[in-house]
Amino acid sequence: MTAGSGDGFRAVYGAAPDGVWAAPGRVNLIGEHTDYNDGFVMPLALPHTCRVSAARRDDGVLRLHSADAAGGVTELRVDDLTPLGVVGDRGGWAAYPAGVVWALRAAGHRVGGADLHVESSVPTGAGLSSSAALEVATAFAFSDLYGLGLPAPRLAQLCRRAENDFVGVPCGVMDQMASACCTAGHALHLDTRDLTRRQVPLDLSVGGLRLLVVDTGVKHALGDGAYAERRAGCEAGAAALGVRALRDVPYGRLGAALERISDPWLRPLVRHVVTENQRVQQAVRLLDVGETAAIGPVLTAGHASLRDDFAVSCPELDLVVEASGAAGALGARMTGGGFGGSAVVLARAAAAESVGKAVNDAFAVAGYRAPRVFEAVPSAGAGRVTTA
Ligand code: GLA
What we know:
single chain, Ribosomal Protein S5, domain 2, Alpha-Beta Plaits, 2 domains, four-stranded antiparallel sheet, 39% helix, binds alpha-D-galactopyranose
């Protein structure tokens, strides 16, 4: 089967799709837990994509099938979609595309049914935004099938709404924006307050560098509640400081701001967000002047802040950072929400292999399952792959 050919769709539905749309997973270079604080992020799209083959239906029926999940075809009526309603298994994959259809309709767009077939090469449960890729590919498909002509950032916002209000995950907008708006060869410098953005050239090979993704293969159960807790903590911190969001606390005034927060649990959360925003801006400045290798220590400082202040790391992620650093990497950090998932490692090309091996060896010594290491090549954002 050719990726994006529509053959999988034909096998399930017995006819050709109207088109095939693809949306990538992402890895975040820097700017973690800043997106729900109106802050800055800098993700890049991965070459791994979720592909949605789709055909419009005018009878209000939505049929969903995934090549990667057991359970056959889920059939729903678009009129019956309600936020946090039941879509088969609540935590199941079908809630994501169904949520996108709900969000489009809730925003007043006239979309009806469709047959969808999903195939994804984005690793799941690895903190690489496989859910956002599924949402965004679905949104692009519906925008085209129903002639909505919605711009990519608007589709990303609606995908976030689907995830927040339909699926019930309180994420920020970074993952959906990365999947919808990244371009090949660039990282996306995004202001999550107003979605202003700039494509920052990230040509690693010119500098003799490689960016590795290390998927630890672990997901600690603590993660889900802890994300919401930290999010609430940040909101409490902003309220205590009388600002709309922690993005509004200037780095130069951090000391004074911290003195005004009496709650010892909130203080490090605030410190992380304010310093992390500063690190994003610092990394952008370095990339702009071609000092790519110099972002290494910025990444590692970001990890320390996520580990010590924001408390969202875990032993496996800390070990990636420690072992890669000891093996000569320029910098490393956990990426995504934390409590497992993946880390990014920046290394000179000549050292990349030995860094990967050092991480593998350290995992073996610690008795952890072997991690999956691959290169992050800054890739294109979502789009239509083919007409049939
Ligand atoms: C998850 C969320 C994002 C973002 C990151 C942390 O990936 O989906 O919105 O908050 O965690 O930076």
